[in-house]
Amino acid sequence: MQPINDINVDEVLRGLSSVEGANGFVIFNQDCIPLKRSEKNITYEKAVHMSALVADLWNVTKKCIQRELRSADNDLEIIRIRTKAQSEYIISQQGDYTMIGIQLCGKAIEEAKQAAAAEAQAAAEAEKAKKGDKEQS
Fold first, then answer.
1. Which residues form the Roadblock/LAMTOR2 domain (predicted)?
2. Looking at the predicted structure, is the pLDDT value of residue 56 above 90?
3. Biggest CA pair distance of the chain
4. How many CB atoms lie within 10 A of CB 42?
5. Which of 55, 108, 111, 113 could anchor a disulfide with 104, C-beta 3.0 to 4.6 Å?
6. Residue 102, φ and ψ in degrees, nearest 5
7. pLDDT digit string (tens) for 63-108?
8. Which residues in 14-25 are b (16+ Cβ under 10 Å) and which e?
């Protein structure tokens, strides 16, 4: 097993992104500045907006848990939120950094697969048409 310092963060994020249903991520610092995000699905503006909202949610939730359980030892490790839009937000904080993972759930996974297949088919047909035009010239 590799020491934690030797692990390449980009490799880990690529691995997580390749998991079925993974739909994106944002990693931000304590000042709510996004440091890394899945650029394919999340714009910088959306990452900033999500970071601010999640940081506030994390802090309020942590205070409520400590107050309700009457112990400062109870620490918040992860928050999972499932939406009506068939996605799930998984939020975790380590030190000064917070990660938001976005995962598709249920029918949304099948819909994403169908959309990806249709996109691949359209790209293949466009390439085929392009080759056909070159041959006619």
1. 9-103
2. yes
3. 78
4. 19
5. 108
6. -115, 130
7. 888 888 877 677 788 999 998 888 899 999 988 899 999 998 877 7
8. eeeeeeeebbbb
CA atoms of 89 and 80, how far apart (whole Å): 6
7-38: per-residue pLDDT in tens?
577 777 777 777 777 888 999 999 999 999 98
Question: How much is the average pLDDT of 56-63?
Answer: 91
Distance, in Å, from the CA atom of 36 to the CA atom of 47, rounded to the nearest integer, reads 9
What is d(CA 121, CA 77) in angstroms, rounded to the nearest whole number? 42
